[in-house]
Amino acid sequence: MPEESETRSAEASPSAKNDASATSSSAPRGAERENEGAADVGSLLDALVRQRLSDATRMPTHEFWETQPVGQFGDDVRGEALKEGPIDAPKTPTEVSEEGGALPPGYEWCSCDLTCEKTQEEVYELLTNNYVEDDDAMFRFQYSQEFLKWALRPPGYHVDWHVGVRLKVTKTLVAFITGVPAKVQVNGREIELAEINFLCIHKKLRSKRIAPTLIKEITRRVNLRDVWQAAYTAGVVLPKPISRARYWHRSLDIRKLVEIGFTRLGRDNSMSRAVQAYKLSPKPKSEGLRHMTKDDVPKVAALLSKYLSKFAVAPILSEAEVEHLLLPREDVVYSYVVEDEKTKKITDFISFYNLPSQIIHGNTKHKTLKAAYSYYNVATSVPLVELMEDALILAKCNDFDVFNALDLMENNTFLRELKFGIGDGNLHYYLYNWRVTHDIEPSQVALVLT
Ligand code: MYA
After folding, report:
1. CA-based nearest residue to 61, from 28, 34, 89
2. Where would a tag sit more exposed on the chain, N or C end, judged by fewer CB atoms within 10 A?
């Protein structure tokens, strides 16, 4: 069956429209798809860079980002020999200001303590109403409170890296940005960094240059803890991605996906044929497949760390982090292992997380798109494609409508075969204060930021 899919993805946003001759879906963590049909974004950017470099009178395109220690467009055409590694000269926390930067009058900084239920609710409300949407404002990410507690409280997290902006008088939370500590390998070097996520400004306060203020504030707070690098992803193109990944979407409930406008049936397709095409076995096929338990943590950590070490960009996970990030949590993260009955070895691992999107256009009775996102998967006893077929079956058994995966790691080996349709936006990977001299293929990236 048809795989003429073209899928619109929205930044971290909820939905990629994909023609599933199958589907039209807008997917979260797709991208603010500024470059539809831009199969070769790289050459387009090169052309832009050349144009900009030859224009002596040009205004900076990125007033803020051009002042930051990040790779800049044109670095590669300026002919300077740039070295891989930190961009800024080394500093110490004593050189970092003790004071937060200036906010517009009437606003104040805060740290959002996610152990406090009221704060959890405030963050949830802000994100639910103002976080990433697809370009057509049909879907918006809806991170649950349980998800936020999970993602933002890994081992060693810092409350002061959960930065908020409040109205001074009412204390209403109007902006947010977060960092969590992590260790990531990049082209063979280990970097202690902050993973930055959940940058969000209330819709009424957009386009007032508050985002750069938030980014400078989180940078200050991260630097105060003697951390000088960061990793982040975004749908938008900023100076300068180290890699560009693409979302793919596998319909699980094609009927609902079409009803809500996430997916469009191709001209030559019918609903009954599409339903048939996306049918899955009722039960997973791998023998010895079961939920991951706490006892599995050391073996899963070893399996993962061996697998992830093959990639140019990958997290280095301690056992405590594996336990936190990958032990199953109801409605948040789903993890399974395949255990060899005789040897008791864990041979394979499946994980995905639950990130629903609100349906914000009113043309359907449905309120939520239930999306599973591929997380970390390792196959050693069966080909990855077989393991991922089980992942789809497990997601279907857990009532997900769609299974989303980026073309990271070895995911390209199963996407087409398992009838994923391509999304229509890119997810760009960035490093702050760390230069890489060559673009990194998404198949060399094994870092999944939730
Ligand atoms: S990605 C998710 C981003 N969030 C959303 O898309 C939610 C909905 N949108 C909003 O809330 C707002 O539109 C946001 C921008 C907040 C995105 N990453 O205040 P402004 C630049 C970085 O007038 P607003 C995620 O969470 C833009 O290019 N920069 O704009 C990862 C321009 O700069 P320049 C972005 O629309 C976040 C400036 O902001 C992004 O009101 C990683 C305009 O500011 C973006 N997604 O607000 C953050 N979007 O003129 C970086 C726009 O130069 C972390 N901009 O082009 C860096 C590392 C920091 C730590 C370092 C430690 C060592």
Report:
1. 34
2. N
Residues contacting ligand 1 via CB (< 6 Å)? 11-12, 62-65, 130-132, 194, 196-201, 206-212, 215, 218-219, 222, 228-230, 232, 234, 236, 238, 432-433
- 325's CB contacts (< 8 A; 6+ apart) are 150, 154, 317, 333
pLDDT (average), residues 142-146: 98
- For 154-190, write each residue's pLDDT tens digit: 999 999 999 999 999 999 999 999 999 999 999 999 9
| Strand 162-167 versus strand 189-201 pairing type | unpaired
What are 269's two structure tokens? 């397709």
Phi-psi group of 119: left, alpha or beta (phi > 0 → left; psi -120 to 50 → alpha; rest → beta): alpha
Residue at 419: amino acid letter: K
| Percentage with pLDDT > 70 across the chain | 86
Q: How far is CA 429 from the centre of its chain?
A: 9
Is residue 297's pLDDT more than 90? Answer: yes
Whose Cα sits closest to atom 56 in ligand 1?
A: 62
Question: How many Å separate Cα 305 from the centre of its chain?
Answer: 20
Q: What is the mean pLDDT of residues 225-233?
A: 98
State both tokens at 181. Answer: 């500590």
Residue type, 264: R
Burial class (CB in 10 A: 0-12, 13-18, 19+), 97: exposed
Model's pTM, two decimal places?
A: 0.91
Mean pLDDT of the 293-313 span: 98
Please give the Cα distance from 78 to 435 (Å, whole number): 15
What integer pLDDT is reported at residue 81 of this predicted model?
80
Check the CA dihedral 181-182-187-190 and report its sign: positive
Q: Nearest-5° angle of CA 435, CA 431, CA 241? A: 85
